[in-house]
Design a protein that fits this description.
3 helices; elongated
């Protein structure tokens, strides 16, 4: 009898937890212009491996810089971004000069040929933002 009561209590707790699932994020999708950049002084500044957020860029990792208007759209520092056509996620680690709008810059380490080959394209990006009622 005691086992049945514990089992029923366990099932009740388990079901009550599952019924209270809340949305963990709001999925956003948009089209942006995408270019590519490298860790070279003539493309960035005299300290090309340091981002505008103060992080060190590591060639081989998937980072992007975003135009400042996209920061207001929830595409903020350390946001994970899916770029259509790529298999893995990119992380927002840099921000671009104020003159750019609706634009991302894909980090390509020191491979200038890859950045030139990429060129300038329109791409679809997806990312997740926290619901406003969960923000502090």
């Amino acid at each position: 009898m005691r086992f049945i009561v514990i089992l029923i209590l366990f099932i009740f707790i388990l079901l009550s937890c599952n019924s209270r699932q809340e949305a963990t994020c709001i999925l956003k999708k948009m089209e942006v212009t995408a270019t590519a950049y490298n860790s070279l002084a003539y493309q960035t500044n005299s300290n090309p491996h340091i981002t505008a957020f103060g992080d060190s860029l590591i060639p081989g990792l998937r980072y992007i810089a975003v135009s400042r208007d996209l920061l207001d759209s929830g595409l903020v520092y350390n946001t994970q971004v899916k770029i259509k056509g790529f298999d893995s996620l990119f992380t927002v680690k840099d921000k671009m000069n104020r003159r750019y709008r609706n634009h991302i810059d894909i980090y390509m380490g020191i491979d200038v040929k890859a950045a030139i080959k990429w060129g300038r394209k329109k791409v679809i990006i997806q990312y997740c933002i926290a619901p406003k009622d969960t923000l502090l």
